[in-house]
Amino acid sequence: MSESTSIRPRRRTGPRLAAARDALQHQREWFATLRGQTEQGRPLALVNADAPQELFRAMDVPYVVNQWWSSIISAKRMSGRYLKALRERGLPDDVEQYSALPLAEALSPRGDDAPWGGLPTPSLVLAECTGDSMRRMFQLWESELGVPFWPLESAAAETVAVNWWELMRHDWETAIGSARIDLLQDELKALIPRIEELAGARFDEERLAQVMALSNEQAEWNRRTRDLLAAAPRCPVPVDDIIPAVMIPQWHRGTSWATAAAKSVYDEVSSLVGEGRAVVPEERHRLMWIGRGLWFDMDFYRSFEQSHGAVFVWSMYLALAADAYARYGDDPLRALAARFCAFRDQMYTPPWSVEWYVKEAKTHRVDGVVHLISPDSRSSWFTTHALRQAGIPVLEIRADNADGRSLDPRAMHDQVARWIESLPDQSQGC
């Protein structure tokens, strides 16, 4: 099944959230400027989503988030073509596709139809090595393309604070453990001279403190938006608008624009809630999407509104932006280390992740969960089990979110539709 024939395009209905439209426009303009600057010799970093991008921000080194670029490739429905190029070079095309797509594009012949003109060759790649495949993948940037790779280790903890979302903003030392924070802080100290070489400037701790302050403020606006949506009688905003409206500013954390954008999301959502706006006026089913965004078919999330009165009220993107980023403290470098050294735990490591998903499902009053399980998932069973133990129905779908070859959208649509029809009707509202 080819990617181009397997995807069934759908037409978007209704106006786009202004904050989402503005963020998308900003990102296009920013990337066009970035391409021009790199063509003039300005350095560029490619950084994984779970790595501390704020250091580059504080040093004025532009960066592209690896998984964001994967989402662009997937949205353009070019993932199959690039992944095929990996296979043709004797490399696996079915391992960590979400992280591998930018590498796959870089190793492919550059065509005129490359997404957004194509990703410029970075000057440095940075990733936390959460497994052997991730380390080997990023080493290919260096061995095949000559791009230096800076690895960060992935540490674990023997004890876990299950209510981490209540501790992370101020009591992160307790929530994470000093040893893990020490490790990443030391690694960041070692990374700083390398970034200084790229920037041609010295690291300024005060500048990093400003970046952290702005990103903390951004997280507080995201927290308010998340709580507002959770409490709203009916969902006022489609999730495929919330994702870009929140996540594009996330990739610009530490800037005044990103903080203002997060506030604009809250202001707009607050206005819609005040007006009594509802994506589905006759809301019968409130759904939760656990997993990465289905980038090659974002319209999927709105497929069941008219036919089933079903609306997705939750994705991890706003929820993580609300709970996972804010870190307050007098030492900005240590606070930054605390922001990222347990980042994947919050999404994927039980009991960190499962307690959080159950909490979010309950506060958002969901009637069911669609759980997208990628091939690289290591803890999906625990998530599904915890939700079902809490009395919340779960439908598991096994596919890679960025690889359009990994599922048949029509079959997936029919599967989800049948499952929704099995849920109790909540047409009386909340």
From TrEMBL:
InterPro entries (UniProt xref): FldB/FldC_alpha/beta (IPR010327)
Stored Gene3D superfamilies: 3.40.50.11900
Q: What Pfam families does its record include? A: HGD-D (PF06050)
Give the family from UniProt: Belongs to the FldB/FldC dehydratase alpha/beta subunit family.
Question: What PANTHER family does this protein map onto?
Answer: 2-HYDROXYGLUTARYL-COA DEHYDRATASE, D-COMPONENT-RELATED, DEHYDRATASE SUBUNIT MJ0007-RELATED
Name of the protein: 2-hydroxyacyl-CoA dehydratase family protein
